[in-house]
Write a structure and sequence with these properties.
By secondary structure, this protein is α+β, with helices and mostly antiparallel strands. The chain has helices at residues 12-62, 89-95, 124-133, 173-176, 200-207, 233-242, 311-318; strands spanning 70-72, 85-86, 117-121, 137-140, 170-172, 182-186, 212-215, 221-224, 227-228, 246-252, 283-292, 295-304. The strands form 4 sheets. A 3-stranded mixed β-sheet has the order 1-4-5. It has a 3-stranded antiparallel β-sheet with strand order 2-3-6. The longest helix has 51 residues, at 12-62.
């Protein structure tokens, strides 16, 4: 009579080895998938930035008063003094909902103690320059929900649909400047996150063709056209406006004049998930505002994502 052979079972140690190997393979797969997702988002972000610029330039060439109805990504109703700047980090968090990735946000606190966006109160001559460029009114995002500071914030894509919901949805620049209309501008003295002293503000100005640099010495100073202007925002920005121009940052949303235009411009406002979830994930249109010999002029300067990157910076980072 034949004896049946017993199947040898796995020992506990062997089972543990198999489970460990499966866990390692699964972790590698998830990590790779996550990396692919991030890389795809970065590529999409770069593609968005690269197509916005030419579309705006084509639209401006073909149409007059082309830049009307950009987003005012700031909700400040307090009268300010014309020509003043405010860089208080807590205040900018209250005023904006344009945070990008944590640590690189346009509004979050970073290592220099000031965010990339500063608040600038327009002067009458600034308004005239913007109107000459075709920007006579701004759209304000509806703010809803609440963040950790108890500040109401707007979810991405949520808009006020009429003046009955928010009397300040559409702002006339000319009439509102008398009460100190504040707009966001790029702060040249803004640095990187808590572990990175990259001169974020200076890099944005550099990528838009201006000679603004961080002199890396023991004291840190912003050099404009080779001249040391220190690190005081008011001093730096005041000098910069007279010597190259400051950069205003307006959001590109669905109501911009060049969005949905059939002859030129863009079909829709571009978004990208490379920016943090539940934040303002669209893009900024940069306008250079310069005063020379008493005359202020405004001109289109470029496009920036919510992490403060222009096309030049994105290309450099991808190499």
């Amino acid at each position: 009579m034949k004896k049946s052979k017993k199947m040898a079972g796995f020992s506990l140690l062997e089972l543990l080895v198999v489970v460990t190997l499966i866990a390692i393979v699964a972790t590698l797969a998830v990590t790779r998938l996550s990396n692919i997702h991030v890389k795809s988002a970065e590529v999409l972000n770069m593609a968005n930035v690269s197509r916005i610029g030419p579309a705006i330039e084509a639209f401006m060439t073909a149409n007059e008063r082309s830049l009307n109805r950009l987003d005012l990504v700031m909700t400040d109703k307090v009268k300010g003094t014309a020509g003043d700047y405010d860089t208080s980090p807590d205040y900018m968090l209250i005023l904006t909902n344009v945070a990008g990735n944590i640590g690189l946000s346009t509004a979050l606190i970073n290592s220099s103690g000031v965010p990339l966006l500063a608040k600038y109160h327009l002067e009458t001559k600034d308004v005239l320059a913007l109107e000459e460029l075709g920007l006579t009114s701004l759209m304000r995002l509806r703010r809803q929900g609440s963040d950790g500071n108890g500040v109401t914030t707007g979810d991405d894509g949520e808009w006020s649909t009429g003046l009955t919901e928010d009397p300040d949805t559409c702002l006339s620049i000319a009439t509102r400047v008398e009460r100190g209309l504040a707009v966001p501008c790029i702060n040249a003295v803004s640095m990187g996150n808590s572990t990175d002293n990259t001169p974020l503000g200076a890099l944005v100005y550099q990528s838009c063709g201006q000679d603004v640099r961080l002199h890396d010495n023991s004291s840190f100073s912003i050099y404009i056209n080779g001249i040391d202007k220190g690190m005081n925002t008011t001093d730096v920005m005041g000098y910069l406006k007279e010597n190259g121009g400051i950069l205003l940052a307006f959001g590109i949303g669905q109501y911009a004049s060049f969005i949905g235009n059939t002859s030129s411009g863009l079909d829709s406002a571009p978004v990208c998930s490379v920016m943090a979830k539940d934040t303002y994930r669209r893009y900024f249109l940069l306008i250079r505002l310069e005063t020379f010999k008493g005359i202020t002029r405004a001109q289109y300067a470029g496009v920036m994502d919510a992490n403060g990157n222009t096309m030049k910076q994105l290309r450099a980072a991808s190499k």
